[in-house]
């Protein structure tokens, strides 16, 4: 079982090693990707200043994130570290001094916050939906039109769609896997994964205060039935789960990590089934080879149909 984290472990490990002087290379230039296909570039912009670091990120859906309020969250979290314009070929860049990584007198908290760059960028859309939902509930307008609600769409990956929409009494998060980009085998794996999630959500030991989750692979919810062919996981988040800032941050992080686990589970299911098929095929071949070796067909009498023994 793989345990996924909210943050990027590569960024955190490197920054901890640099801050505590466990390792201080003369020049740092690392390019890597994470599970969501995001490209990172961690480097020292000036060879003479080993304590100055630059972290750049490239994400295909960055324009959508900016549209839904990601920059407000990034400015709140990183402030003076933001560099404009960003590094060439990337969407967003931070430049900071390694020795100055201190937040609330806690350097590891500041380092963890840098490693949460992806999470913070994606949380802007969630916070925007939560604020709109709270405002709609306070106004309690009897002429409230559900069709006027903002429908936020984010494409974190080539074959993945994420939809966030607020209502008067709850917020809906829909994570969909686009089927038009998948072959028939991948569709079966996706269907198998969603069926397992649907079964586990009905187990009696599940927490009663968790967000209500709906898994479907037949008819999509009304919000996305006109968009494209997808299988989706729908989470309904009531106001009671986002009453405080700590609860809101926790729900946002949990929904994001659930998306990672869902994608990982689909890929791991595909890997496991293929491994089983290869193993069974190999065992069948070994049996045939053992059967064929030094095997002499016995000379049995041939009897016609209906003949007495």
Architecture overview:
- With 309 residues, this protein is α+β, with helices and mostly antiparallel strands.
- It folds into two domains: 9-115, Yope Regulator, Chain: A (2-Layer Sandwich), CATH 3.30.1460; 126-267, Yope Regulator, Chain: A (2-Layer Sandwich), CATH 3.30.1460.20.
- The chain has seven helices and nine strands; from the N terminus they run αβββααβααβββαββα.
- The strands form two sheets. It has a five-stranded antiparallel β-sheet.
- A hairpin with an 8-residue loop joins strand 2 (39-43) and strand 3 (52-58).
- Helix 5 (117-139) packs across helix 7 (245-292).
- Its main location: cytoplasm.
- It is found in: Cytoplasm, Cytoskeleton.
- Pfam families: P34-Arc.
The DSSP helix count reads 7
The main pleated sheet reads as: 5 strands, antiparallel
Point out poorly predicted stretches: none
Count the E strands. Answer: 9
Strand order of the largest sheet: 5-6-7-9-8
The average pLDDT value, as a whole number, equals 78
CATH architectural arrangement of the largest domain: 2-Layer Sandwich
Per CATH, the class of the largest domain reads Alpha Beta
The helix/strand order is: HEEEHHEHHEEEHEEH
Report how far the terminal alpha carbons are from each other.
Answer: 60 Å
CATH topology of the largest domain: Yope Regulator, Chain: A
- Describe the global form: flat
Q: SS-based structural class?
A: alpha+beta
The total number of structural domains is 2
Question: What percent of residues are in strands?
Answer: 15-25%
List the SSEs and their pairings.
Layout: H1 9-19, E1 29-33, E2 39-43, E3 52-58, H2 62-67, H3 70-78, E4 92-97, H4 107-115, H5 117-139, E5 151-157, E6 160-166, E7 171-178, H6 184-200, E8 212-216, E9 230-237, H7 245-292
Antiparallel strand pairs: 1-2, 2-3, 3-4, 5-6, 6-7, 7-9, 8-9
């Amino acid at each position: 079982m793989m345990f996924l984290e909210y943050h990027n472990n590569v960024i955190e490990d490197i920054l901890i090693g640099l801050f505590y002087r466990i390792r201080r290379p003369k020049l740092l230039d690392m390019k890597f990707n994470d599970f969501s296909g995001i490209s990172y570039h961690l480097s020292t912009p000036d060879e003479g200043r080993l304590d100055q670091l630059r972290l750049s990120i490239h994400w295909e859906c960055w324009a959508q994130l900016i549209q839904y309020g990601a920059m407000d969250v990034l400015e709140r979290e990183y402030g003076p570290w933001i560099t404009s314009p960003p590094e060439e070929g990337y969407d967003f860049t931070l430049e900071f001094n390694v020795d100055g990584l201190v937040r609330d007198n806690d350097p590891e908290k500041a380092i963890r916050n840098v490693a949460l760059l992806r999470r913070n960028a994606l949380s802007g859309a969630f916070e925007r939906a939560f604020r709109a939902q709270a405002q709609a509930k306070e106004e309690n307008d009897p002429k409230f039109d559900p069709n006027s609600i903002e429908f936020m769409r984010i494409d974190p990956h080539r074959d993945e769609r994420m939809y966030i929409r607020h209502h008067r009494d709850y917020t809906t998060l829909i994570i969909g896997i686009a089927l038009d980009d998948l072959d028939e085998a991948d569709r079966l794996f996706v269907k198998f994964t969603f069926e397992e999630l649907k079964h586990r959500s009905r187990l009696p030991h599940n927490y009663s205060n968790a967000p209500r989750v709906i898994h479907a692979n037949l008819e999509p919810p009304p919000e996305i039935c006109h968009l494209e062919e997808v299988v989706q996981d729908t989470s309904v988040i009531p106001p009671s789960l986002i009453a405080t800032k700590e609860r809101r941050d926790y729900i946002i992080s949990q929904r994001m990590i659930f998306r990672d686990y869902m994608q990982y589970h689909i890929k791991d299911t595909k890997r496991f089934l293929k491994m089983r098929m290869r193993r069974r095929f190999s065992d069948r071949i070994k049996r045939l080879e053992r059967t064929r070796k030094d095997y002499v067909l016995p000379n049995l009498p041939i009897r016609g149909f209906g003949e007495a023994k």
